[in-house]
Amino acid sequence: MTDEERHRATEQQQNRATETKRRAVGRPAGGKSSGGHSQSLVRGLNILEMLAATPDGLALSDVAEDVGLAPSTTHRLLQALFQQGFITQDVESGLWKIDVKTFRIGNSFLEARDFVATARPFLRQLTATSGETANLGIRDDGMVVYLAQSESKQMMRMITRLGSRAPLHASGVGKALLAWMPPREFEQVVAGRTLEGETPNTLTDVETLRDQLVEIRRQGYAVDREEHAIGLNCVAATLHDESGLPLAAISVSGPVARIDDSRLPELAALVAETAREITAKIGGKTPTEPPA
Fold this sequence. Notes:
By secondary structure, this protein is of the alpha+beta class. Helix content is 47%, strand content 16%. The N and C termini lie far apart (64 Å). Residues 3-34 have low confidence and may be disordered. The protein folds into 2 domains: 3-103, Arc Repressor Mutant, subunit A, CATH 1.10.10.10; 113-281, GAF domain (Beta-Lactamase). A hairpin with a 6-residue loop joins strand 6 (222-225) and strand 7 (232-240). The strands form 2 sheets. A 6-stranded antiparallel β-sheet has the order 5-4-3-8-7-6, with helices on both faces. The protein has a two-stranded antiparallel sheet with strand order 1-2. Residues 1-38 are annotated as: Disordered. InterPro entries: GAF-like_dom_sf, HTH_MetabolicPath_Reg, Tscrpt_reg_IclR_C, Tscrpt_reg_IclR_N, WH-like_DNA-bd_sf, WH_DNA-bd_sf. Keywords: DNA-binding, Transcription, Transcription regulation.
């Protein structure tokens, strides 16, 4: 056997050993299951996702610990993302953050989803009519992600940074989405998940949440009474797709001093009607029961 043949045989043996180990653990270290994709690509995307969820930035050591990689490996991946313009490093603090290229890619998602553009004038009208901030959010696993907002001109007002998140069970938008999920999907969301209390008013019991979701479906809107933030009330309703599934939800939010119990019915009717109008505009249908 020549040296080249011995080298090729050794390389094949090492590859088989690596593949056997990978199958044993089910996924590459520091990343989600990659299937046939590049391990480095999966790791880099995991890092990008982590930084996107941490707007203030992360130190190298924190990134390495969270993804379960050596600092040297993590630094190489960060440098690759930096060179491609996806992330940047703060000169003074040394923290890594997402950069404008990531924003542009994320913004292309909004442009591709017509319901966001369609909803914007409705959000502005909600703000003009109610005087309060109007929001649109979608579900991402067990969280709400806010994609659009029409800001109130009041001195005291609710402001949510676009891309920010809130727990489904602790927000008006989230509960509006939960209420119309297919039962099996709802069970997957709450299975093995602790409903954390954002405030003393947050619903942390699954059965109590179930009962409230029944009421939300009956009345056509959800209410957040200081469940996500003390001093802030919210009324929300669901946007449905062509199959009646929850696509997104809109809300009107503001300080308790202006959105008190006496004003909730007025705002609830306004938000629910606006949600029905947007649903019709995007070709969706408002169901009477959650899709099976």
